[in-house]
Specification:
Distance between the termini: 81 Å
Structural class: mainly alpha
Number of helices: 12
Order of helices and strands: HHHHHHHHHEHHEEH
Strand content: under 5%
Strand order of the largest sheet: 1-3-2
């Protein structure tokens, strides 16, 4: 018991230092303290999945949950998406498994909304809806969850202009990170559709369609992301050599099969 109490006291001190380092924006200290805290909390018997009901269980769970909330934010500031996913997965276990054991975190829905934004930014729509269905009904009224749901609707409707303006109305400061990634995903979708629909577009039209504010932004995007595009005579030429899907033949084949099935059914009747 004494060793557990000392581990709890040390974790409490380090969490206080972590809060101070985060307030200062000292990312290096935050990273070091988080690593130490993650090692310390492995000694807590009350953590999921065991959830042992020890005298220090409430305090241990609160410290561990706060540790992973900090870890999620730090991983975004360090632009480490793999770490973000690992830390968020750990954090979700505290939100789901400790319900009724410790008070609900005031940041629970903002972090769960962040999870939805991540899935949307990666165009994982099926997983987005799976995670959404796991949330309680009252969560759908939270501004952070509503924000993610509305963005998903805009994404699916193809009203991409809402996605590019969504940065101005984020309900939580941490959302800016994935809003920028979502905008990139939407731009890639527009680019893919444009290259399939057109052989070329005037630079001014391509810039407007891809929602850039200057020709320089368009040129940078093409040089970094669209190596098969070419700018000639004030126009953007898409990869005309790329074979485009022949939609006509499969359609005629399907129509022929359907008519054949209908004739066979008529003979049976």
């Amino acid at each position: 018991m004494a060793s557990m109490d000392s581990a709890l006291e040390e974790a409490t001190r380090k969490l206080a230092w972590l809060n101070f380092a985060c307030a200062r924006g000292d990312l290096r200290s935050c990273d070091a303290l988080l690593s130490e805290l993650k090692v310390l909390i492995t000694n807590f018997p009350s953590l999921p999945p065991s959830l042992e009901q020890t005298p220090n269980a409430v305090a241990e769970l609160k410290i561990a949950r706060a540790t992973y909330e900090h870890a999620v934010i730090l991983s975004m500031k360090l632009d480490d998406q793999d770490a973000f996913k690992r830390n968020l997965c750990q954090l979700k276990a505290f939100y789901m498994d400790t319900c009724g054991i410790i008070p609900t975190s005031p940041d629970e829905y903002p972090f769960l909304g962040l999870n939805l934004l991540m899935l949307l930014a990666e165009n994982k729509i099926a997983e987005f809806h799976t995670e959404l269905e796991l949330l309680p009904l009252e969560a759908l009224n939270h501004p952070c969850i509503k924000y993610a749901v509305e963005l998903e609707q805009s994404f699916m409707e193809g009203t991409y202009n809402r996605l590019f303006s969504a940065r101005q109305a984020v309900p939580h400061e941490t959302y800016v990170y994935f809003i920028d990634h979502l905008a990139e995903t939407a731009r890639d979708e527009i680019a893919d559709c444009s290259s399939q629909a057109y052989d070329y577009l005037p630079v001014s039209d391509a810039k407007e369609m891809l929602m850039f504010t200057s020709d320089e932004e368009l040129l940078e995007y093409i040089s970094e992301e669209q190596h098969e595009w070419e700018i000639k005579n004030c126009s953007v030429f898409f990869d005309v050599a790329k074979s485009k899907p022949d939609v006509a033949l499969p359609c005629f084949k399907m129509i022929k099969q359907t008519l054949s099935y209908a004739q066979e059914l008529e003979q049976i009747v």
